[in-house]
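Dear colleague,

Following up on yesterday's call, I've attached the two folding results inline so they're easy to grep. Please treat them as preliminary; we haven't cross-checked anything against experimental data yet. The first protein's sequence and structure tokens come first.
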Amino acid sequence: MAVPSRGRTSEILSSLPLHILLYVNGVYYIFYFLATLAMIIYKSQVFSYPDDFLAPDLAVLFLMAILEVPRLYLGFKGNLTEAEGPLGLSLGLTVGSVLLCVYLLLWQSYVLWADVLLNAVLLAAYTLESGLKVTAIAAFVS
């Protein structure tokens, strides 16, 4: 006969869909970075790409890559440890990544059809991820 346990039982609150989406987004971002870098190199060779605009476009891409590492790390850490602090920081970094993605989508010197497609997929992933982060934070707080 099983003896009922006293006290508080432990319930897992971490989000499996968020964890999966963070993993998929990390893999997709590697592809996104390499494809966007290749397209910037292609555009600089084929089109009359102004030299004054090449450096800012590359700087935005590399800044986005630098932001992506702590964004994903804090997202994984916050979700697995069920802590709202790291998830909130990751959500804040996601806002920064979205702004940089919008720059590459709208204000880049030349925007190819492939740029639009890659950025649209990345923005959709960021949107889903942000919704799941807010949901996870709400579950952790309550």
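Below is the second protein, in the same order (sequence, then structure):
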Amino acid sequence: MSQTKTLKVRVTLFFILVGIVLALAAVVTDHWAVLSPHVEHPNGTCEAAHFGLWRICTKRIVLGDDDKSCSTISLPGEKNCSYFRHFNPGETSEIFEVTTQKEYSISAAAIAIFSLFFTIMGTICLLLSFRKKKDYMLRPASMFYTFAGLCILVSVEVMRQSVKRMIDSEDTVWIDYYYSWSFACACAAFVLLFLGGLALLLFSLPRMPRNPWESCMDAEPEH
């Protein structure tokens, strides 16, 4: 592999690494969306919530005279978190039954696990490529990273549908919502992993013939 192509691969791997970190941050945190009810009395209390793939947290916030919204989750208040028991049928908590759609949450969590699996497989191929000096291992690594990015995108869309169902449900008091920093991390991870995987695949391919009389056998040999 030429020095120019090696530099391109290293830059691409840096962006992929950033995407992996952002994907992990999105999966393990619970600030995908913040939900808040309508505030009727400014000088009172309200119950806001934020949730992720694994748990939902509600917070009873005491509003001041100047507070007209309950969406500021950083305000002081009593916090209560409950994990989603995805894989334990019959052992769901009351807050889970009321505030989310189980099928959406299970789907988003499962797809996120697949994304982590693809990321691990891509990293294994990448390490083999570096340690064994086998450049062709970059190609399966790039495909795994691309699949990981696609899984993150599907998980993001499933969570969007889950938030919409929660807002539209008559069993909840929340009518306002916005997507928080965990959601932003997931979106950025999709862009970096998907585009980074495609770029890595492009850079790892052998040089195509430049002239009609050249053949692929004339390309640079792979180690």
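For the second protein, one point worth flagging: The two ends are 8 Å apart (CA to CA).

Best wishes,
A.L.
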